[in-house]
Amino acid sequence: MARHYMQRMDKDGDARVSLAEYQDWMGYAFSRMDRDGNGILAAAELPGGKGEPVTLEAHRARLAARFQRQDRNGDGHLDAVELTAPPR
């Protein structure tokens, strides 16, 4: 299962996931939710129709922080073990 998930995220096929690959994969929901395509999730576009607006930049920054927590060996990439481990 982890290997299959890794293969789907690993667009360049190097058996590891870069920050950009992680952000692109994990950010798919943002694009789907951003119905007007302006790079900002307004309250009406958020689950439940409530909340503060979220920019694509802020969303990618949160994903980068999560990536850094999962990159336990600090090499700038996630291997299959790091990818499937819960973030610290």
Give the topology, please.
Blueprint: H1 2-9, E1 17-18, H2 19-26, H3 28-33, E2 40-41, E3 54-55, H4 56-70, E4 77-78, H5 80-84
Antiparallel strand pairs: 1-4, 2-3
Descriptive notes:
The protein is mainly alpha-helical. Helix content is 48%, strand content 9%. It has five helices and four strands, in the order αβααββαβα. The protein has a two-stranded antiparallel ribbon with strand order 1-4. The protein has a two-stranded antiparallel sheet with strand order 2-3. α2 packs across α4. The longest helix is centred in the C-terminal third of the chain and has 15 residues, at 56-70. It is elongated, with a radius of gyration of 14 Å. The chain starts with a helix and ends with a helix. The mean pLDDT is 92.
Share in helix: 40-55%
Count of runs of 4 or more consecutive helical residues: 5
Taken as a percent bin, the fraction of beta residues is 5-15%
Low-confidence spans: none
The end-to-end span amounts to 21 Å
The radius of gyration computed from the alpha-carbon positions, rounded to a whole number of angstroms, is 14 Å
